[in-house]
Amino acid sequence: MGRDDELRRLERAARAGDGALVVVWGRRRVGKTRLLVEWCRKGGVYWVADTSAAPLQLRNFAETVAGQLPGFADVDYRDWATLLRRLAREARAAGFRGPLVIDELPYLLASTPELPAMLQNFVDHELKQAQLVLALAGSSQRMMQGLALSSEAPLYGRATELFKLAPLPPGCIVDALAAGDAVQGVRAYATWGGIPRYWELAEAFDDHRDAVDALVLDPRGPLHDEPNRLLLEELPSAIALRPILDVIGAGGHRLSEIASRVGQPATSLARPVARLQELDLVLRETPFGDPERGAKRALYKLADPFLALWFSLVAPKRSSLVQLPRAGRLRLFDAASPRLVSSVWESLCRHAVPRLGNNLGIEYGPAARHWSAGGNEWDLVADSADGDALLLGEVKWTEKAPSPSDIERAAQTLIAKGAPPIAGRDKRERRYAVFVSQRPRGRSKLPSNVAVIDARDVMEALR
């Protein structure tokens, strides 16, 4: 589901003539396991580490490899270096090239901290000689930084393929959960985000609201305590960062505000917030035109729509959800849903801009919001690819299709704002776009430099 490009990259690495090292990472539930298992279906070996003691890990790995190399588990290995050397000999003799996947590598490194040096020696010598394809996977970007990404890492520069697995493209949810309806696709994405595990659970339900109640709102639902599980499963555990997520989910987006609510000085939050960003749980947003680093106006928000739903609805109302019947729980969801969908819709529109050249008339670069204290706000601002024009966007979400007059008023409001006070942009040609859930049935009377973009356009662009 939506992983064809990643699977092609893995299969290309597997065709390397002198062996290959593949490194894959990404946040939990993003689908690493499913992708790697699919890659191994044609005769590879997939093994997942756990929290057991080092000798048991060795034994479990050897037994898994024995499925492809009979007799490999008949020996008790004293360490990983010994096991890897024999693995290379046996694989070469049997003509087995892999792929050989070691998933959840952080657990293995916790019990065997000397493993990176052993892997470095194995990759440099035995792996090439045996022409094996080895894949290492994990959820921790920090761990991967220490293993393969940093210039000082043991495996730095040795990977044939190295990539971070992102959530599924938003547009894919239209066919997966919304039966081809782009408006319903936006609503679904505003709940489940791009996390495959959540999509799989939601597929069992015909009605979106039924899925939300059974999976998330009901205290017995499998996702009712999901954020705590995500934090606890990190290595080391990230559960101590939960208060920061609570504050952001409750509407505290400035670092000073977050610090005040958690009762800590803002200077002490740099590392915890950075780790939440590494885990793909929090995003740092700066106004269009501001430098990404050191921007004083930076805001922090939850990176995943599901987390935004959970921390705005489940976290503050857990006691109520325990007592309420289904109808009461759904009333809470119905009251919160328009705001959550609107916020996600804005984000989707901004992400789609670089891919909407045909709809907007010219190509644009990345889009972002722009705001300033006491001034106007623009939902979307982007530079044209040639630098000659500035796109200004107004993003609206309504459950029903807007009327032509609604579009005209939105365009007039947008044009009346003028251009944001960004150095170097004041003399550029101004173009405008109004983003709506559905196009009006009648024609709007708009200037030639105003485009109308709907949910179908956006979700098609984000496939």
Q: Could you list some keywords that capture this structure?
A:
463 residues; alpha/beta; Rossmann fold; Arc Repressor Mutant, subunit A; 3 domains; 5-stranded parallel β-sheet; 12 strands; 46% helix; 13% strand; globular
Return the CATH topology of the largest domain: Arc Repressor Mutant, subunit A
Instruction: Tell me the Rg in angstroms.
Output: 25 Å
Helix content: 40-55%
From the helix content, strand content and strand pairing, which structural class follows? alpha/beta
Head-to-tail CA distance between termini: 11 Å
What is the overall silhouette? globular
Number of domains: 3
The overall pLDDT average reads 93
Beta percentage is: 5-15%
List low-pLDDT spans: none
CATH class of the largest domain: Mainly Alpha
The CATH homologous superfamily of the largest domain = Winged helix-like DNA-binding domain superfamily/Winged helix DNA-binding domain
Continuous helix count: 22
Largest sheet: 5 strands, parallel
Strand order in the sheet with the most strands: 2-3-4-1-5
Per CATH, the architecture of the largest domain is Orthogonal Bundle
**Number of distinct beta strands:** 12
